């Protein structure tokens, strides 16, 4: 028995390519414009390059000139839905536009912009027309919005402490509490606050409030709002973080976003976009480090690349392509299959940063002493990203939150979805597919089906005949079959999990979630490779997929075939070619400014 998996906005069975164009060429043009405006990141004289941004970091101050440039370029419009006068249509296109910023500095990307999207998401999902217009006006005018998180288990500085909003007898609420670490707290024109409105724990414990610029001014004038001092974080620049304290500030009833008690549900729905977007832009940041490593071992050399660097450099390149496959699939799914993304979003949020962390360790070995010269225009990206990545991913708290989404779903997925669901629409993997707009209101919370597991099983079946061909195709078929076998084993183990809250207990269950997340990464690679139409001969060839899947299989501890002859060399040749041509190490191969 199978369940229909129809894409949003289309009758069952109709491919996504039947939709009209929704702005992919325009998004690519805006990304290229940002690349040009930001200039060569490795030029020490560039005011927007790595050296200048690192200098701002050392001074613990935002890079004013670069933020002014981004404001004049209208970057704030990227976070406002097209229906509200902005440019936000699809999450995958947004990631494409943001990558030039994150390619230079993760702190710049968070400090100017992306957190405004995270804050405004609840308003785009459930806000009134007036609230949506108010927030759109802030962002379109170059302003910022800050998200004020509720407290979570495993809390770090960003997720520790919370605000309360008590109903007032005369109507509205009274906002109280303090929080020490809020991104852009001192620089935002609006706050979206997840405040406790019920004392008991549970799904109705919190509500969301929009504290607009007028309310902020009233609170300051009345002495009800205090800005707490800037704080220093291990990563990103300390000038971005400070705190807020509200002392019984009266909020009108129309500040409530959605319904009272809807805060947890809104967080679960809207944070899916954050979890898919952060890994995608992190790939761009890692791309810069890989280029630095290739530069370190090739600059000034006419001889072939030393053999000791072949495996780490080609392997990191393959990992970035795998990470980009997983992130891109999740971003497209937000538009095409929004009711089924919650588990994938959580998986991509901790698989991709983990892959990047491992890659940075490998690249540190290649860069040697170059990699830890802080602020160096050519090689300083490694040191900066090592410090920024944990903050971008919310550290252990972010991983724990993602596992808390996946683990309760494992038994249900094993029983109703794996080896039962049909494969997703082809537009999920095809570059240039025309997809619906992102609609926050359509995002599901739990109970969605696993379309990527179906991709994995389908690809293994289709590749079965290639086992007798030998070479790279046979290796790809063997890898796909091995991952499908791991999914069968996982189904048996997950179907035996106890029902109810007991499912969440024990480290063994977390291990199952980790293994499952890596299988989704493998499925993303297979789906992306199968969708190639030959436009990019390198991506259409199986070499990169074989290397990427071999590395994923090794992380899972399953049997993997030896790399076929020529496989590593093919990936390495493309790595060198892209470096010399000044192109990115992602699926798009974007032309970079240099």
Task: Quickly describe the structure.
The chain is of the alpha+beta class.
Q: What can you see in these coordinates?
A:
51% of the residues lie in helices and 8% in strands. It is of the alpha+beta class and 594 residues long. It is globular, with a radius of gyration of 24 Å. The N and C termini lie far apart (54 Å). Residues 9-22 and 153-157 have low confidence and may be disordered.
Q: How many strands appear in the DSSP assignment?
A: 8
Q: Could you estimate the helical fraction of the residues in percent?
A: 40-55%
Contiguous uncertain segments of 5+ residues:
9-22, 153-157
Task: Give the mean pLDDT.
Answer: 89
Q: Gyration radius, to the nearest Å? A: 24 Å
Spell the H/E element sequence.
HHHHHHEEEEEHEEEHHHHHHHHHHHH
Largest sheet: 8 strands, mixed
Distance between the termini: 54 Å
Global shape: globular
The total count of helices amounts to 19
In terms of DSSP E residues, the strand content is: 5-15%
Class from helix and strand fractions: alpha+beta
């Amino acid at each position: 028995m199978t369940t229909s998996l129809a894409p949003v906005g289309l009758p069952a069975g109709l491919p996504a390519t039947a939709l009209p164009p929704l702005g992919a060429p325009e998004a690519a043009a805006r990304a290229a414009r940002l690349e040009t405006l930001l200039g060569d990141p490795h030029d020490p004289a560039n005011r927007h390059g790595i050296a200048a941004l690192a200098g701002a970091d050392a001074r613990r101050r935002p890079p004013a000139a670069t933020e002014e440039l981004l404001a004049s370029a209208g970057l704030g419009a990227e976070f406002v839905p097209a229906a509200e006068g902005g440019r936000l249509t699809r999450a995958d296109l947004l990631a494409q536009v943001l990558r030039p910023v994150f390619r230079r500095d993760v702190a710049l990307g968070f400090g100017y912009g992306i957190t405004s999207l995270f804050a405004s998401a609840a308003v785009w999902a459930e806000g009134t027309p007036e609230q949506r217009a108010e927030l759109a006006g802030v962002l379109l005018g170059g302003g910022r919005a800050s998200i004020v998180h509720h407290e979570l288990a495993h809390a770090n500085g960003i997720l520790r402490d919370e605000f309360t909003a008590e109903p007032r007898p005369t109507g509205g609420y009274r906002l109280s509490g303090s929080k020490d670490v809020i991104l852009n707290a001192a620089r935002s024109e609006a706050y979206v606050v997840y405040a406790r409105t019920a004392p008991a724990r549970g799904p109705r414990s919190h509500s969301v409030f929009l504290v607009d610029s007028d309310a902020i001014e009233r609170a300051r004038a009345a002495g009800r709002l205090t800005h707490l001092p800037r704080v220093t974080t291990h990563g990103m620049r300390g000038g971005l973080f400070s705190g807020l304290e509200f002392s019984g500030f009266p909020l009108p009833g129309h500040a409530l976003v959605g319904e009272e008690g809807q805060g947890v549900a809104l967080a679960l729905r809207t944070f899916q976009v954050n979890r898919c977007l952060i890994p995608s832009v992190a790939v761009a940041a890692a791309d810069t480090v890989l280029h630095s490593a290739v530069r370190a071992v090739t600059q000034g050399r006419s001889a072939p690349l030393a053999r000791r660097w072949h495996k780490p450099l080609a392997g990191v390149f393959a990992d970035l392509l795998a990470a980009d496959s997983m992130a891109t699939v999740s971003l497209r799914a937000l538009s095409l299959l929004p009711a089924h993304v919650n588990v994938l979003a959580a998986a991509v949020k901790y698989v991709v940063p983990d892959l990047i962390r491992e890659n940075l360790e490998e690249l540190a070995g290649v860069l040697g002493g170059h990699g830890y010269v802080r602020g160096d225009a050519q090689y300083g990206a490694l040191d900066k990203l090592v410090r920024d990545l944990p903050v971008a991913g919310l550290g252990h708290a972010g991983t724990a939150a993602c596992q808390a989404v996946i683990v309760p779903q494992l038994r249900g997925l094993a029983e109703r979805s794996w080896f039962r669901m049909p494969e997703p629409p082809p537009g999920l993997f095809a570059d240039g597919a025309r997809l619906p707009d992102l609609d926050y209101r359509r995002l599901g919370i739990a109970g969605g089906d696993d379309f990527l597991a179906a991709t994995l099983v389908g690809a293994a079946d289709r590749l079965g005949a290639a086992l007798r061909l030998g070479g790279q195709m046979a290796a790809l078929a063997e890898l796909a079959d091995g991952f499908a076998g791991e999914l069968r084993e996982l189904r048996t183990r997950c179907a035996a999990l106890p029902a109810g809250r007991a499912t969440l207990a024990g480290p063994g269950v977390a291990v199952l979630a980790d293994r499952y997340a890596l299988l989704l990464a493998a499925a993303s690679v297979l789906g992306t490779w199968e969708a190639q139409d030959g436009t990019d001969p390198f991506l259409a060839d199986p070499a990169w997929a074989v290397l990427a899947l071999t590395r994923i299989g090794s992380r899972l501890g399953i049997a993997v075939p030896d790399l076929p002859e020529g496989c590593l060399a093919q990936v390495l040749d493309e790595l060198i070619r892209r470096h010399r041509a000044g192109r990115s190490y992602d699926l798009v191969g974007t032309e970079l400014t240099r």
